[in-house]
Amino acid sequence: MSLKGIIFDLDGTLVDSVQDMHWSLNLALSDVAFPVVSETQVRDWVGNGIDKLVMRGLSCNFEVNPDLSEVLIRQATEQFKHHYHTLVGEYAQLYQDVESVLRELSAIPKAIVTNKNRAFTLQLLQKLNIDTYFDVIVCGDDGNKKPDPEPLHAACKELGVTVQEAIMIGDSKSDILAAQNAGMPVIALTYGYNQGFDLKQLNPEYLCDRFLDIIPILNNSDLKQIKEQDD
């Protein structure tokens, strides 16, 4: 299989953005008279979109309280978006070697597939000066979210490649399941926002501890051959 496209997750894969979301969530919680939460908690809660993050904040738990009112959720979510619009990218940082690796991969078409809303995704990419590296951006408010395979199929279509010609790179259970649901190989990164889940249990084709580790995998265009050698 010849590699013709690379699909990246954003938060926890390319960017450590928890501080921005932590501040925004606590400001939103304060606005609706709910107790603030810790950065460690937020780090475990991100990855499933803004709505789910806000509900987890209101519940002060990964599992959402089913008794939360729709009015409260809507109000807190609106306040989060208001604060995040101001704070997005203020404290976020690229993970080590991200920009140098993106430069090295400049000849290969690339996409971002994220559960983050489009407005915030574009803000973050521009703030960190990496927006020009990507040909396609598919966001959480464009349609279904990961682990649904739809956003990966949409990215492949826009890149002009088949799922067999692309690879997904992400840090979470949602990324791995989305790739597997789409029939696409996946590189899982262990350093990101995995919500305490052992990614090895999902049997991704490749498991890397550093972003730089993806280079020897991607530089070999025959990914099937690499997999056979690894086995």
Describe the structure.
43% of the residues lie in helices and 12% in strands. With 231 residues, the protein is an alpha/beta fold. It has 2 domains: 5-16 and 93-223, Rossmann fold, CATH 3.40.50; 17-87, Putative phosphatase, domain 2 (DNA polymerase, domain 1, Orthogonal Bundle), CATH 1.10.150. It has a 6-stranded parallel sheet, with helices on one face. One of its GO terms (molecular function) is phosphoglycolate phosphatase activity. Keywords: Carbohydrate metabolism, Hydrolase, Magnesium, Metal-binding. It is an enzyme of class 3 (hydrolase).
CATH architecture of the largest domain: 3-Layer(aba) Sandwich
Low-confidence stretches: 223-231
Q: Roughly how many Å apart are the termini?
A: 17 Å
Briefly, what CATH class of the largest domain? Alpha Beta
Fraction of residues in H or I helices: 40-55%
Mean pLDDT: 94
Total number of helices: 10
SSE order in H/E notation?
EEHHHHEHEHEHEHEEHH
The shape is globular
Calculate Rg over CA atoms. Answer: 18 Å
What is the secondary structure topology, with strand pairs?
Blueprint: E1 5-8, E2 15-16, H1 18-31, H2 39-45, H3 50-59, H4 70-87, E3 93-94, H5 98-104, E4 110-113, H6 118-127, E5 136-138, H7 150-159, E6 166-170, H8 173-182, E7 186-189, E8 206-208, H9 214-218, H10 223-230
Parallel strand pairs: 1-4, 1-6, 4-5, 6-7, 7-8
Antiparallel strand pairs: 2-3
Helix pairs in contact: 1-3, 1-4, 3-4
